[in-house]
Design a protein that fits this description.
The chain is of the alpha+beta class and 127 residues long. It is built from 4 helices and 8 strands; from the N terminus they run E-E-H-E-E-H-H-H-E-E-E-E. It has a single domain, classed as YjbQ-like (Jelly Rolls), CATH 2.60.120. Strand 5 and strand 6 form a beta hairpin. The longest helix has 14 residues.
Length: 127
């Protein structure tokens, strides 16, 4: 199984709940695991709570943790901070699936973390 979908982002640094999009990509009889992957070096995929204020806290945390300026890669395309923030998030998550549904904990959601937006991102679901 291999599906792709696109996610549009509005901000330079943004956490977006993509759980419903991931589940929609799953076959109804799927059991096992799937991997959810960002195809980009400046966006990550994480599992966490999708509460609105926490999404903002994630954005603030990554922004505070990695300064916007002062990186050598900025001499090329001025987005080293985005690469470093995405590095902290990771590019994929492997998740359990039962009866075609993600088998997540009560407060767990799949989040795309945009670090260099606004952009259109491609997310893959495969397994």
């Amino acid at each position: 199984m291999h599906e792709r979908f696109e996610v549009g982002t509005d901000e330079r640094l943004q956490a977006i709940d993509i759980t419903d999009r991931v589940e929609a990509a799953l076959p109804a009889d799927r059991d096992g695991t799937v991997t959810v992957r960002s195809r980009h070096t400046t966006a990550g995929v994480v599992v966490n709570e999708a509460e609105r204020r926490l999404l903002t806290d994630i954005e603030t945390f990554l922004g505070d943790l990695v300064p916007d300026e002062g990186w050598r890669h900025d001499e090329i395309d001025d987005n080293a901070d985005s690469h470093l923030r995405a590095l902290l998030c990771g590019s994929s998550e492997t998740l359990p699936v039962r009866d075609g549904t993600l088998d997540l904990g009560t407060w767990q959601s799949v989040l795309l973390v945009e670090c260099d937006g606004p952009r259109t991102r491609t997310v893959e679901v495969f397994g």
